[in-house]
Each structure stands twice: as C-alpha cells, then as structure tokens.
Specification:
Helix content is 48%, strand content 7%. The chain is built from five helices and six strands; from the N terminus they run ααααββββββα. A hairpin with a 4-residue loop joins β4 and β5.
Length: 214
C-alpha cells in the first residue's frame, strides 16, 4: 500500500483544490489528518488484532460520515455544524470526508495489498486491479471492468482471519521499516503537495491585492 506520507500528500492536494474560501492552516491540517486516519488501524496489531487496512479502511465510515453531514446540513431545520462553525465548518467537513475516502481508502484499494472495504460486515480483503491503455493495435484497452467476464477486476487475497497486510508494526520478514516513498511517482506527488501549499497562499494573496486595487 502507498506509504502514509503519500496518502497525506494526496489529502493536501485535495485540500488545496477543494477548500476554496475555507483554506487556511487549520483546515488543511484537518483534511491532511483525515487522509492519514485510515492507516492508524495498523496500531491494532499491538493489541493482537490483525485488522490493518480493515478497521479504519471500511467504506462504511466515510459513507456514514457523509450521511450524517447531509442530514445535519440539509435535512435538519437547524444545523449544529453551521451554528458552531458556519459555512467554513461545512466546507472543511465535506473535504475531510473526501480526503478520508479518496486518499485514505482509495489509494490502498487500488494496491495489491488490498482493503477490507466492508469491515466489519465482511472481513474479506479486496484489491481493485487493472490497466487502462490506448494501443495502436487494439485501441482502448481497460481491464478494470470486464462486462463479459464477471464485472470488476477485483482480487481477494483472503480475510482478516487468514491474511495480514504488512505494516511497520507487522513486518513479514521481522525487520520493521517506515516507508516514506516507494517509487518515483510517489516522490512526485509528495513534492507537488509541498509546492502547492505556498503557491496557494501566494495566489490568494495576489487575488486579494487585485481586489483592493480594483
């Protein structure tokens, strides 16, 4: 699975792109933290539970959070979130849920290590694997969805009872390692996130100056 640093970097990029007027240090920290939370399920191994990529990687968590947000902000006559934090809080909350789902769960779901997407309803791990290629010989080739062969290209290495996702706390070879980046594309994502934050501040500052001049 992608290292947590890469997951946080993707969360930061989502924050830069989606926070809009709610963008500041606090909101960016909340969104980045939301992206990192799913990886904390690796800590359960310390108590003897093997639920890495399961306990906090369940899609039921962001779906439940999204449902709660929708109910509070759209259905209730008076939103508790709006009363306490205003539109700022609503924007930050929705982006945090998106970061949790896309960066925290999505990146791992499309890796070979797999994710128990429906935990605790089901303890089975799933990995969404495939490719998308444009070829001069075969045209557009994609293997994520194979309609004539059973649907999505999903593989399952086992369940929480038979399969263990390797993490710094549960290494398969006995040597504990903390991976920061594992490939060039991951390094590019981290570097892009680092560069995007100050650029966002500079752009917003320039826009404010332009408004003052106008």
């Amino acid at each position: 699975m992608p290292p947590t640093l890469v997951t946080v970097a993707v969360g930061v990029l989502l924050g830069v792109a989606l926070l809009g007027g709610a963008f500041d240090r606090r909101s960016l920290a909340i969104v980045a933290g939301a992206a990192a939370i799913p990886d904390l399920d690796a800590l359960f191994v310390l108590s003897g539970l093997s639920v890495t990529n399961a306990a906090f990687h369940s899609v039921l968590i962001p779906f439940g959070a999204a449902a709660g947000l929708y109910y509070d902000t759209q259905v209730r006559e008076r939103s508790r979130l709006v009363d306490r934090y205003g539109p700022y809080g609503v924007r930050v909350a929705w982006v945090a849920v998106a970061a949790y789902a896309v960066a925290g769960i999505g990146l791992d779901a499309f890796s070979t290590e797999s994710v128990a997407l429906l935990y605790p309803i089901s303890g089975r791990y799933y990995a969404i694997l495939g490719r998308l290629v444009v070829s001069t010989q075969d045209g557009l080739v994609q293997t994520y969805v194979t309609l004539g062969e059973g649907g999505l290209g999903i593989e399952s290495p086992g369940t929480v009872g038979t399969y263990t996702v390797e993490s710094p706390l549960s290494p398969t070879d006995g040597e504990r390692r903390i991976h920061l980046v594992d490939s060039g594309w991951q390094a590019v994502i981290v570097a892009t996130a680092i560069a995007a934050v100050p650029m966002k501040y500079l752009i917003e500052r320039r826009d404010r100056l332009d408004e003052e001049v106008a």
